[in-house]
Design goal:
The chain is an alpha/beta fold and 186 residues long. It contains seven helices and five strands; from the N terminus they run βββααβααβααα.
Length: 186
């Protein structure tokens, strides 16, 4: 069965789903929370916040290490899911990732000088780690702007929560729609 992964990222973690089918008849194969920030590494959950308190060379190193760590953890989580799905006979055809506003970020020094940009950069960092890890698996990635999701699509999958039980939060719903969009495209 053809499947796709879907992700909605947060600071240090992401809601992940694996789905098959179409928006009118989705089948949820897996859902879980994946950790993409090393809890043993100080500042990894909010690296730009932590970096803003440091001299620039140290800040730059902290952000770089946080990006590398997030990528490694995302790769590990996606690898485990892809392996499990393949062992169950599923073909993982793509990946949907919820995106932010799409605003281009300035250089690190300017990011660290603005609390609003720090938040934006952290969101982008974790989303980009998921995208990078999916691409390492040669999974086509469909970026889905969260504000661009059709409310009708969310309504169509609403009843899925009654079938599968909790948790069926906004995170899982949005990730499911993104995964179904990726599956329809690939």
């Amino acid at each position: 069965m053809r499947t796709a992964l879907g992700f909605r990222a947060h600071s240090g973690w992401a809601a992940m789903v694996a789905v098959a089918g179409m928006i009118d008849a989705p089948q949820l194969l897996e859902r879980r929370r994946i950790v993409i920030a090393d809890p043993n590494r100080p500042g990894s959950k909010q690296p730009y916040h932590a970096a803003s308190e440091l001299p620039f060379p140290e800040a730059e190193a902290l952000v770089r290490m946080a990006i590398e760590s997030a990528r490694a953890m995302a790769l590990e989580a996606i690898s485990a899911s892809v392996k499990t799905l393949r062992l169950q006979g599923h073909e993982v055809a793509g990946c949907g990732v919820l995106l932010g506003s799409g605003k281009t970020l300035p250089a690190l020094e300017r990011i660290l000088a603005s609390h609003a940009l720090i938040h934006t950069a952290e969101g982008e960092m974790f989303r980009n780690a998921l995208i990078w890890a999916a691409e390492e698996h040669r999974l086509p990635v469909t970026g889905v702007r969260e504000k661009g999701i059709d409310p009708t699509s969310l309504k169509r999958i609403e009843s899925l929560g009654k079938v599968i039980g909790p948790p069926w939060t906004q995170d899982q719903k949005y990730a499911t729609v993104a995964a179904l969009m990726a599956l329809a495209l690939h």
